Structure formats: structure tokens, C-alpha cells
User: Which sequence fits this backbone?
């Protein structure tokens, strides 16, 4: 089992990250839709959707949304929100789902770069390209690896729901890694996160090699321009 299958299927993953800023996430999606002039009724794929919080929000805004994730537990949770225009499936994003079907594909909040083989990241982009209609848009939101590395907090402790999470970060073999240690109900746990330290220019190049034309580049959830070393995010919009 890979680290992401193990960790993302764990209830502790959702405990650790339950306080993510929902208001900021909604603001980002609202302004991205306005900026890109996306139309209600469009067919949207939320790629690596987790428990579906962004899929649900996009659906409420009038989009026909399909959410996919590798985590059985996350998809089982998300399915409670399904309706005629919102559906969820267990799916590996390295493989094609539908061909020439979606108007937009969203890959949000660093849901990319998990794989040991570089070729597998290219497989994700190739599958996304194949899934879009001609002229369709792929929106990828990734961490700014340069800023993360330059300002890396090597060790951090958070107490959530009475559980003390001890997190240790490092740069190792081209990956930004996090080891998460904690105890709960008398049992010790160790989980890992690992994401490839892809730089802005490398990510642009990867999209272009997959066939996309990069039409927008943003540096944060407020859609400010990307600035190397300063921006919090690398948000790219590629057009098929």
C-alpha cells in the first residue's frame, strides 16, 4: 500500500486537516469561475476530490460535477451528497475516466505529485487532457515548492481533538516530506506525506508537454500574479 492510500483512508487525516479555511476555498472558486467566465451547466471533474467538499460547492453553483478519488473511505463519505448532477467514483487519476467529455477539470490544493515515478505524474496530465473537450480547461493548484523549501518549518506540533500530532518536515530526494507521529487510545501511529518538489517552471513545462496551452498563472487564492519565491501557490490554467 502506498503512503497516500494508507494516510488518505485514515480518519486521522481528516482530523488533522479539518480546520482548513473553507471561506478562503470558496472565495477562490468563486473568483476563478468569474475570471474564467465558466458557464453554469458545464460538466466538471473534481480530480482527487477527497470527501467532496469542493465538488459539493461547485455543484451548488450550478455545475454538473463528477468527483473522483482513490480513497474508498472518502468516496463513501462523499456519496451522501450525490444528486442528479453530482456523482462520486473511486478512480485512479493516472488513468482516463471519460474521453472528450468535461468542460473543466479541477485539481485543487496540491492533489498532485504524489508518485515515485515521474512518468506517473505525466500520466495524470495525459489523462486529464484526454478527458477534456477541445477548448476545455485544466486548473491545477499546487504548492510553491521554492517558498515551502525556503521557509520550511522542520518540526511542528498541533493538538486537535485531544490528539497531539508531531510533524517533521524535510526535503529528501526531490520530495517535500512530512512524518506525522501521534498516539490515540493507547496506540502509537506513524503516517507519511510526500509530494514532489516541482518548481513553477517545471509544472508549466509538464502541462505544455501534455498538450496544454497555459493561459493563466496565479500565485494565490486571490488570483494575484505568480512571483517566484514569494507566492504561496502555483495555480495554472491549461487549455486543450
Assistant:
Amino acid at each position: 500500500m502506498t503512503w497516500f492510500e494508507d494516510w488518505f483512508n485514515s480518519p486521522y487525516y481528516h482530523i488533522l486537516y479539518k480546520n482548513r479555511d473553507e471561506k478562503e476555498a470558496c472565495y477562490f472558486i468563486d473568483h476563478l469561475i468569474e475570471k474564467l467566465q465558466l458557464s453554469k451547466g458545464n460538466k466538471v471533474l473534481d480530480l482527487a476530490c477527497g470527501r467532496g467538499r469542493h465538488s459539493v460547492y461547485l455543484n451548488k453553483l450550478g455545475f454538473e460535477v463528477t468527483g473522483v478519488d482513490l480513497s474508498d473511505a472518502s468516496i463513501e463519505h462523499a456519496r451522501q451528497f450525490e444528486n442528479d448532477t453530482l456523482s462520486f467514483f473511486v478512480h485512479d487519476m493516472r488513468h482516463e475516466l471519460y474521453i472528450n467529455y468535461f468542460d473543466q477539470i479541477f485539481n485543487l490544493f496540491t492533489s498532485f505529485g504524489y508518485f515515485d515515478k515521474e512518468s506517473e505524474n505525466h500520466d495524470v496530465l495525459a489523462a486529464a487532457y484526454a478527458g477534456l473537450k477541445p477548448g476545455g480547461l485544466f486548473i491545477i493548484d499546487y504548492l510553491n515548492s521554492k517558498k515551502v523549501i525556503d521557509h520550511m518549518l522542520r518540526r511542528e506540533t498541533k493538538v486537535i481533538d485531544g490528539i497531539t500530532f508531531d510533524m517533521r518536515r524535510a526535503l529528501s530526494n526531490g520530495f517535500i516530506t512530512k512524518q506525522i507521529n501521534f498516539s490515540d487510545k493507547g496506540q502509537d501511529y506513524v503516517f507519511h506525506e510526500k509530494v514532489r518538489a516541482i518548481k513553477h517552471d517545471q509544472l508549466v513545462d509538464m502541462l505544455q508537454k501534455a498538450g496544454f496551452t497555459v493561459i493563466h498563472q496565479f500565485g494565490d487564492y486571490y488570483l494575484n500574479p505568480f512571483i517566484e519565491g514569494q507566492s504561496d501557490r502555483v495555480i495554472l490554467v491549461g487549455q486543450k
